[in-house]
Specification:
With 183 residues, this protein is of the alpha+beta class. Strands 1, 2, 3, 4, 5, 6, 7 and 8 form an 8-stranded mixed sheet that branches. It has a two-stranded antiparallel sheet with strand order 9-10.
Length: 183
């Protein structure tokens, strides 16, 4: 059975992740860390996304897990499985209850497990799941508590390329004898 190779693009993956977080946290404004400056931070509650590592294969930083397939002689399809880490931080003014940052962030785990979200992420060329638990980073800020929670998502992508190698995959023989028997 031929392998279908999906080529991802970062804008598609980022849009799909943004949509997942926005759906899970409807009361929060969602921003990408590199797109926000301290002067333009949104009012709380908000969620901030940041790609912290790119192209990490489990246990082997900087290496690709490669699958080779071929549909025709001399044509090889390479499928590079890559894993990335996206940090999600949620900020809230509430230090307890359903509007606490950790409670809001717990909704993201459920959202990533829904069939519709998995389908949307797959269409963007990725798969995402929570890696580890939710870190409650609530602390005093000036004279009041700031509710903050953080979790990491593992985002798996598949990058494909096709190469014409010129390899000979099959050959026919005639007139060759092995131990006196024609092959």
């Amino acid at each position: 059975m031929p392998v279908t190779v999906t080529t991802f693009t970062w804008p598609n993956v980022q849009d799909a992740l943004y949509d997942a977080v926005a759906a899970a946290l409807p009361t929060c404004k969602v921003v990408w860390a590199y797109a926000a400056s301290p002067a333009s931070m949104p009012a709380k509650p908000f969620a901030m996304l940041n790609v912290t590592t790119r192209e990490i294969e489990p246990g082997q930083p900087g290496r690709d897990e490669v699958q080779l397939t071929s549909d025709a002689a001399g044509v090889v399809k390479h499928a590079f499985h890559r894993r990335h880490t996206v940090s999600v931080n949620v900020y809230s003014n509430s230090t307890a209850g359903d509007t606490h940052a950790a409670a809001l962030l717990a909704n993201l785990t459920r959202e990533l497990q829904t069939d519709s979200r998995r389908t949307a992420l797959k269409a963007a060329g990725c798969k995402a799941w929570q890696n580890g638990g939710i870190n409650d980073l609530t602390a005093m800020l000036d004279t009041r508590g700031e509710s903050r929670a953080q979790c990491d998502l593992t985002v798996a992508t598949l990058y494909g390329t096709t190469e014409t190698t010129g390899w000979i995959e099959t050959a026919s023989t005639s007139g060759i004898k092995v131990d006196g028997v024609p092959v």
